[in-house]
TrEMBL record:
It holds the Pfam family BPD_transp_1. The keyword Membrane applies. PANTHER family: ABC TRANSPORTER PERMEASE PROTEIN MG189-RELATED-RELATED, SN-GLYCEROL-3-PHOSPHATE TRANSPORT SYSTEM PERMEASE PROTEIN UGPE. InterPro entries: MetI-like, MetI-like_sf. Keywords: Cell membrane, Membrane, Transmembrane, Transmembrane helix, Transport. This is Carbohydrate ABC transporter permease. One of its GO terms (biological process) is transmembrane transport. Belongs to the binding-protein-dependent transport system permease family. The chain crosses the membrane at residues 12-34, 71-95, 107-129, 141-161, 182-207, 240-261.
Length: 276
Protein backbone atom coordinates (compact mmCIF):
# COMPACT_ATOMS: atom_id res chain seq x y z
CA UNK A 1 0.00 0.00 0.00
CA UNK A 2 2.81 2.36 0.86
CA UNK A 3 4.41 1.67 -2.51
CA UNK A 4 1.17 2.57 -4.31
CA UNK A 5 0.87 5.76 -2.28
CA UNK A 6 4.44 6.68 -3.11
CA UNK A 7 3.81 6.07 -6.82
CA UNK A 8 0.62 8.12 -6.66
CA UNK A 9 2.49 10.94 -4.94
CA UNK A 10 5.18 11.00 -7.63
CA UNK A 11 2.54 11.06 -10.36
CA UNK A 12 0.67 13.88 -8.62
CA UNK A 13 3.85 15.93 -8.32
CA UNK A 14 4.63 15.32 -11.99
CA UNK A 15 1.15 16.48 -13.02
CA UNK A 16 1.39 19.60 -10.87
CA UNK A 17 4.81 20.43 -12.31
CA UNK A 18 3.51 20.01 -15.87
CA UNK A 19 0.59 22.30 -15.06
CA UNK A 20 2.88 24.92 -13.54
CA UNK A 21 5.49 24.75 -16.31
CA UNK A 22 3.27 24.39 -19.39
CA UNK A 23 -0.42 25.11 -18.83
CA UNK A 24 -0.13 28.19 -16.61
CA UNK A 25 2.00 30.15 -19.15
CA UNK A 26 -0.30 29.00 -21.95
CA UNK A 27 -3.34 30.18 -19.98
CA UNK A 28 -1.59 33.51 -19.34
CA UNK A 29 -1.01 33.99 -23.08
CA UNK A 30 -4.57 32.93 -23.91
CA UNK A 31 -6.41 35.26 -21.51
CA UNK A 32 -4.26 38.26 -22.39
CA UNK A 33 -4.79 37.60 -26.09
CA UNK A 34 -8.52 38.09 -25.49
CA UNK A 35 -8.17 41.48 -23.75
CA UNK A 36 -8.01 45.01 -25.07
CA UNK A 37 -4.77 46.99 -25.00
CA UNK A 38 -5.41 48.61 -21.61
CA UNK A 39 -6.31 45.40 -19.76
CA UNK A 40 -3.50 43.40 -21.35
CA UNK A 41 -0.91 45.97 -20.23
CA UNK A 42 -1.61 44.96 -16.62
CA UNK A 43 -0.16 41.48 -17.38
CA UNK A 44 -2.43 39.52 -15.06
CA UNK A 45 -4.13 36.13 -15.38
CA UNK A 46 -7.59 37.58 -14.68
CA UNK A 47 -10.32 36.77 -17.17
CA UNK A 48 -11.01 39.76 -19.46
CA UNK A 49 -14.03 41.95 -18.75
CA UNK A 50 -14.89 41.82 -22.47
CA UNK A 51 -13.71 39.45 -25.19
CA UNK A 52 -11.78 40.96 -28.11
CA UNK A 53 -10.90 37.71 -29.90
CA UNK A 54 -11.80 38.48 -33.51
CA UNK A 55 -10.75 42.12 -33.42
CA UNK A 56 -7.32 41.14 -32.09
CA UNK A 57 -7.00 38.36 -34.66
CA UNK A 58 -7.88 40.78 -37.46
CA UNK A 59 -5.34 43.36 -36.28
CA UNK A 60 -2.59 40.78 -35.96
CA UNK A 61 -3.23 39.25 -39.38
CA UNK A 62 -3.51 42.58 -41.22
CA UNK A 63 -0.58 44.28 -39.47
CA UNK A 64 2.15 45.58 -41.80
CA UNK A 65 0.37 44.52 -45.00
CA UNK A 66 -0.47 40.97 -43.87
CA UNK A 67 3.07 40.24 -42.74
CA UNK A 68 1.89 37.28 -40.63
CA UNK A 69 0.43 35.57 -43.72
CA UNK A 70 3.74 35.93 -45.57
CA UNK A 71 5.55 34.73 -42.47
CA UNK A 72 3.41 31.58 -42.29
CA UNK A 73 4.17 30.89 -45.95
CA UNK A 74 7.92 31.42 -45.41
CA UNK A 75 7.99 29.24 -42.29
CA UNK A 76 5.97 26.49 -43.95
CA UNK A 77 8.19 26.49 -47.05
CA UNK A 78 11.33 26.53 -44.92
CA UNK A 79 10.08 23.67 -42.75
CA UNK A 80 8.91 21.43 -45.60
CA UNK A 81 12.02 21.91 -47.74
CA UNK A 82 14.36 21.39 -44.78
CA UNK A 83 12.55 18.22 -43.67
CA UNK A 84 12.59 16.69 -47.16
CA UNK A 85 16.33 17.28 -47.56
CA UNK A 86 17.02 16.20 -43.99
CA UNK A 87 15.15 12.90 -44.29
CA UNK A 88 16.72 11.78 -47.57
CA UNK A 89 20.27 12.96 -46.86
CA UNK A 90 20.39 11.61 -43.30
CA UNK A 91 18.74 8.30 -44.16
CA UNK A 92 21.22 7.64 -46.98
CA UNK A 93 24.19 8.72 -44.86
CA UNK A 94 23.06 6.50 -41.98
CA UNK A 95 22.60 3.53 -44.32
CA UNK A 96 26.17 3.84 -45.57
CA UNK A 97 27.57 4.39 -42.05
CA UNK A 98 25.75 1.39 -40.60
CA UNK A 99 26.37 -1.04 -43.43
CA UNK A 100 29.93 -0.06 -44.31
CA UNK A 101 32.57 -0.98 -41.75
CA UNK A 102 36.13 0.05 -42.60
CA UNK A 103 38.90 2.22 -41.17
CA UNK A 104 37.12 5.43 -42.20
CA UNK A 105 33.87 4.62 -40.38
CA UNK A 106 35.06 5.76 -36.89
CA UNK A 107 36.23 9.06 -38.35
CA UNK A 108 32.93 9.64 -40.12
CA UNK A 109 31.07 8.88 -36.87
CA UNK A 110 33.35 11.29 -35.02
CA UNK A 111 32.61 14.15 -37.41
CA UNK A 112 28.86 13.46 -37.22
CA UNK A 113 29.04 13.53 -33.42
CA UNK A 114 31.06 16.74 -33.58
CA UNK A 115 28.04 18.39 -35.15
CA UNK A 116 26.18 17.91 -31.87
CA UNK A 117 29.01 19.35 -29.80
CA UNK A 118 30.50 22.25 -31.78
CA UNK A 119 28.26 25.37 -31.65
CA UNK A 120 27.44 27.16 -34.91
CA UNK A 121 29.32 30.38 -35.74
CA UNK A 122 27.20 33.26 -36.99
CA UNK A 123 29.70 35.58 -38.70
CA UNK A 124 31.70 32.89 -40.62
CA UNK A 125 28.45 31.31 -41.80
CA UNK A 126 27.16 34.65 -43.09
CA UNK A 127 30.51 35.21 -44.84
CA UNK A 128 30.33 31.79 -46.53
CA UNK A 129 26.68 32.19 -47.57
CA UNK A 130 27.37 35.67 -48.95
CA UNK A 131 30.41 34.40 -50.81
CA UNK A 132 28.45 31.69 -52.62
CA UNK A 133 25.43 33.92 -53.23
CA UNK A 134 23.03 32.18 -50.82
CA UNK A 135 22.71 34.88 -48.15
CA UNK A 136 19.10 36.10 -47.74
CA UNK A 137 17.82 33.22 -49.89
CA UNK A 138 15.54 30.28 -49.08
CA UNK A 139 18.23 27.88 -50.31
CA UNK A 140 20.73 29.37 -47.87
CA UNK A 141 18.49 29.19 -44.79
CA UNK A 142 17.40 25.64 -45.72
CA UNK A 143 21.08 24.68 -45.92
CA UNK A 144 21.68 26.13 -42.45
CA UNK A 145 18.69 24.29 -40.93
CA UNK A 146 19.74 21.00 -42.53
CA UNK A 147 23.32 21.41 -41.37
CA UNK A 148 22.19 22.01 -37.78
CA UNK A 149 19.86 19.00 -37.74
CA UNK A 150 21.88 16.51 -39.74
CA UNK A 151 23.88 15.05 -36.85
CA UNK A 152 20.91 14.17 -34.63
CA UNK A 153 18.87 12.74 -37.51
CA UNK A 154 21.76 10.69 -38.91
CA UNK A 155 22.57 9.10 -35.54
CA UNK A 156 18.90 8.32 -34.95
CA UNK A 157 18.60 6.70 -38.37
CA UNK A 158 21.82 4.75 -37.84
CA UNK A 159 20.66 3.30 -34.53
CA UNK A 160 17.36 2.25 -36.04
CA UNK A 161 19.08 0.87 -39.14
CA UNK A 162 20.91 -1.66 -36.99
CA UNK A 163 17.59 -3.45 -36.40
CA UNK A 164 17.18 -4.17 -40.14
CA UNK A 165 18.85 -7.53 -41.00
CA UNK A 166 21.67 -7.47 -43.52
CA UNK A 167 20.11 -10.53 -45.15
CA UNK A 168 17.58 -8.18 -46.76
CA UNK A 169 20.41 -6.35 -48.50
CA UNK A 170 22.06 -9.57 -49.63
CA UNK A 171 18.81 -11.02 -50.97
CA UNK A 172 18.02 -7.83 -52.86
CA UNK A 173 21.49 -7.68 -54.41
CA UNK A 174 21.22 -11.33 -55.49
CA UNK A 175 17.93 -10.46 -57.20
CA UNK A 176 19.69 -7.75 -59.17
CA UNK A 177 18.85 -4.64 -57.15
CA UNK A 178 21.27 -1.75 -57.44
CA UNK A 179 22.23 0.51 -54.55
CA UNK A 180 19.56 3.16 -55.09
CA UNK A 181 16.81 0.63 -55.77
CA UNK A 182 17.77 -1.30 -52.65
CA UNK A 183 17.67 1.80 -50.48
CA UNK A 184 14.55 3.53 -51.84
CA UNK A 185 12.59 0.36 -52.57
CA UNK A 186 13.30 -1.73 -49.47
CA UNK A 187 15.24 0.10 -46.74
CA UNK A 188 13.54 3.51 -46.70
CA UNK A 189 9.98 2.11 -46.26
CA UNK A 190 11.21 0.18 -43.21
CA UNK A 191 12.37 3.45 -41.60
CA UNK A 192 8.86 4.89 -41.21
CA UNK A 193 8.81 4.92 -37.35
CA UNK A 194 12.07 6.83 -36.99
CA UNK A 195 11.23 9.01 -39.99
CA UNK A 196 8.01 10.08 -38.25
CA UNK A 197 10.02 10.98 -35.15
CA UNK A 198 12.50 13.06 -37.12
CA UNK A 199 9.78 14.78 -39.15
CA UNK A 200 7.80 15.88 -36.08
CA UNK A 201 10.70 16.92 -33.84
CA UNK A 202 12.60 18.69 -36.60
CA UNK A 203 9.46 20.39 -37.94
CA UNK A 204 8.69 21.90 -34.54
CA UNK A 205 12.30 23.02 -34.12
CA UNK A 206 12.59 24.60 -37.57
CA UNK A 207 9.14 26.20 -37.51
CA UNK A 208 9.86 27.78 -34.12
CA UNK A 209 13.41 28.83 -34.99
CA UNK A 210 14.09 32.47 -34.24
CA UNK A 211 17.85 32.96 -34.37
CA UNK A 212 18.75 31.48 -37.76
CA UNK A 213 16.13 33.35 -39.84
CA UNK A 214 17.05 36.55 -37.98
CA UNK A 215 20.72 36.27 -38.99
CA UNK A 216 20.70 34.35 -42.26
CA UNK A 217 17.32 35.29 -43.80
CA UNK A 218 16.77 38.98 -42.96
CA UNK A 219 14.25 41.30 -44.57
CA UNK A 220 10.56 42.01 -44.07
CA UNK A 221 9.59 39.88 -47.08
CA UNK A 222 11.61 36.98 -45.68
CA UNK A 223 10.16 37.16 -42.16
CA UNK A 224 9.22 33.90 -40.46
CA UNK A 225 6.50 33.55 -37.84
CA UNK A 226 8.77 34.08 -34.83
CA UNK A 227 10.07 37.36 -36.23
CA UNK A 228 6.55 38.81 -36.47
CA UNK A 229 6.63 39.28 -32.69
CA UNK A 230 8.59 42.47 -33.34
CA UNK A 231 5.47 43.98 -34.96
CA UNK A 232 3.92 44.74 -31.57
CA UNK A 233 6.97 45.56 -29.47
CA UNK A 234 8.99 48.76 -29.41
CA UNK A 235 11.20 50.74 -27.05
CA UNK A 236 8.35 52.88 -25.74
CA UNK A 237 5.06 51.12 -26.58
CA UNK A 238 4.12 47.43 -26.59
CA UNK A 239 0.67 46.21 -27.60
CA UNK A 240 0.55 43.21 -25.31
CA UNK A 241 -2.89 42.02 -26.38
CA UNK A 242 -1.76 41.81 -30.01
CA UNK A 243 1.60 40.38 -29.02
CA UNK A 244 -0.01 37.55 -27.07
CA UNK A 245 -2.52 36.91 -29.86
CA UNK A 246 0.39 36.67 -32.29
CA UNK A 247 2.12 34.20 -29.96
CA UNK A 248 -1.08 32.16 -29.72
CA UNK A 249 -1.56 32.00 -33.48
CA UNK A 250 1.99 30.89 -34.25
CA UNK A 251 1.95 28.36 -31.40
CA UNK A 252 -1.13 26.46 -32.60
CA UNK A 253 0.41 24.58 -35.63
CA UNK A 254 3.43 23.03 -33.85
CA UNK A 255 1.33 22.36 -30.74
CA UNK A 256 -1.26 20.41 -32.75
CA UNK A 257 1.50 18.56 -34.61
CA UNK A 258 3.12 17.51 -31.35
CA UNK A 259 -0.18 16.46 -29.72
CA UNK A 260 -1.36 14.30 -32.62
CA UNK A 261 2.01 12.63 -33.29
CA UNK A 262 3.28 12.34 -29.72
CA UNK A 263 2.98 8.52 -29.73
CA UNK A 264 4.93 8.26 -32.97
CA UNK A 265 7.74 10.37 -31.49
CA UNK A 266 8.03 8.11 -28.45
CA UNK A 267 7.81 4.95 -30.55
CA UNK A 268 10.52 6.07 -32.96
CA UNK A 269 12.88 7.21 -30.22
CA UNK A 270 12.38 3.99 -28.21
CA UNK A 271 12.79 1.71 -31.19
CA UNK A 272 15.96 3.47 -32.27
CA UNK A 273 17.56 3.33 -28.84
CA UNK A 274 16.61 -0.24 -27.96
CA UNK A 275 17.23 -1.91 -31.30
CA UNK A 276 20.36 0.09 -32.03
Amino acid sequence: MSRKLRTFGIEAVAVLLSVAIFWVPLYFVFVNALKDSKEASELTIDWPSSIHLWSNVKEVVTARDFMLVRAFYNSAALTVLSIVVLVFVCAMAAFVMQRRQDRFTPWITFFVLAGLIIPPSIVPTIWVLDGIGLFKTMTGIVSVEVALGISFATLLYRNFMASIPREIDEAAIMDGCGGFRLFFGMILPLLQPVTATIVVTSSVTIFNDFTNPLYFFPGSKNATVQLTLYNFMSQFVSQYNLLFMNILLITIPPLLLFIFFNKKIVAGMTAGSVKG
